[in-house]
Amino acid sequence: MTKLLLTLLFTVTSTVIFAQEEGIAEKINKEFQPLADKWGGFVFYSVEVSEGVYIPLVVVLLLLAGLIFTVLFKFVNVGKLPISINILKGKYDDLDDEYVKAGKQKEGEVSHFQALTSALSGTVGLGNISGVAVALSLGGPGATFWMIIAGLLGMSSKFVECTLGVKYRDVCKDGKVYGGPMYYLKKGLADVGKGTLGKILAPMFAILVVGGSFGGGNMFQANQAAQQFTDMAGLKSPTYSFIFGIVMAVLVGVVIIGGIKRIGSFTEKIVPFMVGVYLVAAIVILVVNYSHIGNAFGQIFNGAFSPEGITGGFLGVLIQGFKRAAFSNEAGVGSAAIAHSAVKTKYPVSEGLVALLEPFIDTVIVCTMTALVIIIANSDGSIMTYGMKSPDGVLATSKAFASVLPWFTYILTLAVVLFAFSTILSWSYYGLQGWMFLFGRSKPVIYVYKILFCTFTIVGSSVSLGAVTDFSDAMIFAMAVPNIIGMFFLYPKVKEELNRYLEAVKGVK
Questions:
Q1: Which is higher by pLDDT, 98 or 383?
Q2: CA–CA separation, 375 and 384 (whole Å)
Q3: Where are the domains of the chain?
């Protein structure tokens, strides 16, 4: 197995060295295109809901899961928000401390806050900057309303999958944690008499998360960061992108060698910082244009139900908002459950309640702020024409922010690089967990993955690999299929954990 992995490593490294000179990137594209078309066709197979209006089946699956879990858990996404915040503030830490005083070990590697920021760093990113602009260009301001609704529903899915991630994780004697959907699909489904199904779904998810980590979670992020940086600096030569990739790969390597503890330590600092900088800039623009905020919300609500000039009308707007939310917060995909499974706690539901804050922060707050800035700046139609797809979402967002802050291009470049870097870190951990589930936890296996991952960072920065990233993106959203199947079989276990935890917190004042 090690020889096989090393051979793969050599092949990928050779690709990096000779890609530009030998046109290997184009050859890889050619080889991967049939797979990209096949998987993209499967995962993003769309149903025509109105003339010329289509919705991907994966979006329907994710939204239905969010809606069903919201009802099953009696609107846990709203009713339990105060408890979620109190958990982050440490109000219920004594519950775990009492468990430790009883002579038992509090399992896990990171705090609630570190787990949250690690998972957030994998979702808050380029989708919040460029994706929102694209959704608005296609669906108009009304898409924002449905984006928020989908984000709220996604909170319930995050709650379920992250609770399961902690409940069925593996904790070794040295304290290291291994968790995620592949573990609750295998162990959890066996727990409810569906062991055979679990043996099929668990490795399926692991394969998909490894593939997704190399492409959409790594190469695409590095590519967008390199483009934004070199364009801002006026460095058009591919050589500079290659150098940028090497620097990025080295920085990624330094962090991921330390595992989830170092990733958590890093993301608890960088995520609040980068989200804070971005939101402060948005707030400044909204304050300057405070007289237009009411009109912007009016466009959002009116456009949600009575859109004009949008293909598909009401359904077209609704679908664009739902798609943006689903692809931004990844609720139901299962990726966040991997990060949250490493938390230090005795009560799995405590982390599920923390995790439901992710879609709220990612979609309801960050995406909505981006949308408001664009809508206000586009009052004269200078940013985009609603109903026509914006060819470059990052450029549209940059123009909107620069309308008040001319120097925002530099801030946006910093945000893009930091967002991309933190997303790469999180996906390195997600992919490694899937990799170890498939190949074992020996040091050679782990180091081969980490070297491969850093190599793909360079690949993504320096060459165009459209088909590979399309294929990888399809794998990321295909993760939702086995994950949601498992969630529906296992949600009664989550109910049991929720009741147990609510009973425990009753005595805490």
A1: 383
A2: 10
A3: 35-505
Q: Is the pTM value of this prediction over 0.85?
A: no
CATH of 35-505 given 3.40.710.10, 1.20.1740.10, 1.20.120.530, 1.25.40.850: 1.20.1740.10
**Confidence at residue 129, expressed as pLDDT on a 0 to 100 scale:** 75
User: Which residue type occupies 81?
Assistant: L
pLDDT digits (tens, 9 = 90+) for 427-469: 888 899 999 999 888 888 888 898 888 888 888 777 665 555 5
Picking from 7, 162, 17, 4, the residue whose alpha carbon sits closest to that of residue 76 is: 162
Helical residues (DSSP H) of 168-219, grouped into ranges:
181-183, 189-191, 195-214
Output 46 or 161, whichever has higher pLDDT: 161
User: Which has the closest alpha carbon to 360: 393, 336, 377, 376?
Assistant: 336
| Beta carbons within 10 angstroms of residue 10's beta carbon | 10
Q: For residues 117-143, give the mean pLDDT.
A: 73
Distance CA 120, CA 115 (A): 8
302-337 b/e (C-beta count within 10 Å ≥ 16 → b)? ebbeebeebbbbbbbbbbbbbbbbbbbbbbbbbbbb
